[in-house]
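Hi everyone,

Forwarding the result from last night's run.
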Amino acid sequence: MKRLMTAVFLTWILLGSLSVAAVAQDQIRGPGVEEAKAALEAFIGAWNTADNAVLRETMNFPFVSLFGTRVIVADEPEQFSTDFAGMRSRNDWHRSAFDFDTLQILAASAERVHCAIDFHRYTSTGEDYMQGRVMYIVTKQGDRWGLQMRTPIGGGIGMDDAAYEVAFEGAKQAVLDFFVAFNSGDREGVSRPLNYPHVFMTQGGLAQAGDSSARSVRPDFDRMRDGQGWHMSTIDSLSADHVSANTVHMNLVFSRWHLDGTRYWTVPALWILTRDDGHWGIQLRSLLPATFGAIAQ
């Protein structure tokens, strides 16, 4: 019990020390970055063919589209399609483009990259009729890189400080509640700070949960204790890349510890939190490969 309370207290200390502001990051370089850029170039090139079969070749599946709290998962390539004919008829869409000068690498590894980039859509006369920013998760499956998750970024421009703080604190509290429940070994408790449908992306694959009864959102703590010697988890760092009234993108690094105080696993991750009917919850989790230690996913 003493060590459990230490874990909970440490979580509070780590979160309580965070500034209520997005933490600026230097552009990340390293393994996976150039491959992710090439995958984005291939995707936008395929998009401009207006041929879904060609576009699917630049994606990895299952593919996740996250629009606010609306989650669409295409488990197989044939389940994904874009209505290019409708875009032409409604907006005279002719082509789209990424502005690679705006590309931000949020996190990178040899198998997974989190990034954000501005896009533009043009009519047949060259009018730039739509602009926006999208966050992508680019992954390596086998020997091939492709896009596996997309979510638009918007709604944060013009927020006053009070609204920003309310959104950030709401999202931060959901993260805190998750770790407190996790360190308590509370399988029911860890499901409450989530929003559904919930998506969990790891190196081992993608798990979906339609509601809190799904096994994928109820960790087997006994198995973790017996198989890993897990005793507690801590948040090592937490920052927000994007904050709006209803969505916050959190970059975090967390660690797992043995009873004797030895750290045995450290993982960087992206958690996307949304506000659904007033409830802040974690809608999507994406884990990068461990930077310290290794356990089975």
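The chain has two domains: 2-23+158-287, 33-153.

Cheers,
N.
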